[in-house]
Amino acid sequence: MLKTTLLATGLAVLLALPSAAQSTNSGTDKFAQLETLLPTPNVYRTASGAPGTDYWQQRADYNIRVRLDDEKQSITGDEDITYTNLSPDVLTYLWVQLDQNILDKNSITTSTQVGEIQPRMPFQAMDYLQRDGFDGGFKIGEVKLKGGKALPYTINHTMMRIDLPTPLRPKQAVTFSISWRYNINDQLKINQRSGYEFFPEDKNYLYEIAQFYPRMAVYSDNQGWQHKQFLGNGEFALPFGDYRVSITAPADHIVGSTGVLQNPNDVLSSAQRQRLAQAQGAKSPVLIVSPQEAEKAEQTRAKGTKTWTYAAKNVRDFAWASSRKFIWDAMGIKQGGKDVLCMSYYPKEGNPLWGKYSTEVIAHTIKVYSKYTIPYEYPVAISVHGPVGGMEYPMLSFNGGRPEKDGTYSADRKYGMISVIIHEVGHNFFPMIVNSDERQWTWMDEGLNSFVQYLAEQEWERDYPSRRGDAAQIVPYMRTDKSLQTPIMTNSESVLQFGNNAYGKPAIGLNILRETIMGRELFDYAFKEYSRRWAYKHPTPADFFRTMEDASAVDLDWFWRGWFYTTEHTDLAIAGVKQYNINSQNPTVEKGRQRELKEQAPRTISQQRNQTAIPRTLVDDKPELKDFYNQYDPLVATPADQQRYQQLLKTLTPEQQQRLGSGLNVYEVSLKNLGGLTMPVIMQLTYADGQKEIQQIPAEIWRKNNAEVSKVFVTEKPVASFVIDPYQQTADTDQSNNAWPQQAAPSRFELYEFQQRTAPNPMQQQSALQQKEQKPLTTPASSSGGTN
């Protein structure tokens, strides 16, 4: 450190006057407000981020009847949709989503896929490309108005426009029906969000069924019809409504579904009904269908069918699962004064993991998410194990995580299973309740959900091995080439590095807000307020950004701009440190300090060598050449020095006199923002006596110069070192420039003895094979009659 002294009386002036570098902006005002980027507030969505006085949203109610063909792996169905226009607009047509058309032979998704052929490709990849002629798209039968009049319609890939015979005016409703059929995909070959798994050992199928019916698209105040084509990544935008769904399946199947079972007497045995009632107040999961009963069912093939009828109120979607292989357990909890039945459906191949953990994880997830958002109000929450690795629907989710056939599993498999259940069950809150537009903004459901998932994981087990949560976990992504990144505020179908961008970066950004920028109390209050305001409504990014600021009084525009709208990264650096001590003006003190510094100063190489080379100088030999200055010591305090000091003290106030003799240490630390992303400066000071202190400097330190600033620290004790972000709170991508004095980054390398290894040649391989088979080696003859 560069050490010098300064006058205490000028210290306040020095700190009050920024240098030219500190007051010169680097070209972009990273603290500019987001008004130019966010939509203008109106009567539908306010500047505070809350729904406006005239906020509205449409409603779609469904009565659906579907039949599962277990022989042909297909579904046929028909539905009645009652669509209520609660907008101020007159609608002449309606848009319906046909998301199953992503598996149509002429799918726009397949035709727009890009990629390169690799020397080695898994069979599954080729199965997906070729699909063996599989056609899984909707085959629409009839579209009719209530009363039987046919409605004209036009199918555009995954969207269908239905033209209304008369305009649908505000506050009016229309009821129409659609019939359809489609083939179910083999999920292990054609990986989608639903499908079937075939078990060759017992020749049974397990079905996880979603996007199985034509669904109403969203019509909203902020964009009109959301009819962006479904290409695969951007999930779903759906209105709320009530559902009644009747599912006809083989009589020996167990069917789990969104909603509440309406006809248990028709489909469950008396023992199963009794166990289900017992589960409502149970402290641990109760088996409704035991492993022994499921294995027995696997051996049967019922010729008849049963129809399971489920009803769900105020949900945005519906999904179900069916198999004769299902083990079924349940446990009831209280949440917000209401009963919630947590249930799991899984084949025997899922045990012992699923029987031990699944339902307990569901209950834990509902409790933790309710604490950080809003109370869970749906009557059931379900986790189903089958071929879909992880997918969410209201009250029901599909989850992976299967142990080995011998029942063993790795730690990664265990925690991976727990995490995916937390994540998918957590989606009940985002976006099933806080109903964001997934087709446009994946991060609004995946990112927010991944953040609360992290909180739930940490409340499951101390030091739970979460994949996404701590700031340091996003650093490898932030270090990647900028051409491989996209801003978070990128449409779902255009996002690069989907998991990092749509899940990890927004989730970790929220954790940085909570732990480092806002603090837990302010963040948690604002996050709950956002959840409360937009429960069962359609929020946009602006509503989230504005609510988080409105409820906390923290200006976060700089954070949204940098973290969400750019691909800049965090790299704060200490460029240098200058040390100052206050000049006390006391001649005894100051001259004594000067003498100490002089004595500690190293002698030059010439001085050291002259000590031997020149044993005596001329003055040593002729003392008569000495005068006053050969005896004079300028570092001795004289009476005149003391007199001047006393006169100075008379001109100072008692407070100024105390400051003059305080012996404070003053450090000017030069900071640089090399990554471009604005962040608070978390500075750790380690004092000479070993004590440590953390000083958190808000991000506004960069407001007048986004690139470099100097910060002055005044301490009573001398500082031995300064370190930025010692606990890796800000996703700093380069720790090597965070310390002063600079610290070497510890690492390791491995010593080994070099040995040239080559693969066996073909003869060696043949010899080894024949020796193994105990056959004599025959060497082929050359063309000249000799041997090779």
UniProtKB/TrEMBL annotation:
InterPro entries the UniProt entry points to: Peptidase_M1_aminopeptidases (IPR050344), Peptidase_M1_dom (IPR014782), Peptidase_M4/M1_CTD_sf (IPR027268)
All copies of domain Peptidase M1 membrane alanine aminopeptidase, residue ranges: 358-563
Signal peptide stretch: 1-21
Keyword Signal attributed: yes
Keywords attached to this entry: Signal
Biased segments, Basic and acidic residues type: 590-601
Keyword Translocase: no
Pfam families: Peptidase_M1
Compositional bias annotation for Polar residues: 776-788
Protein name according to UniProt: M1 family metallopeptidase
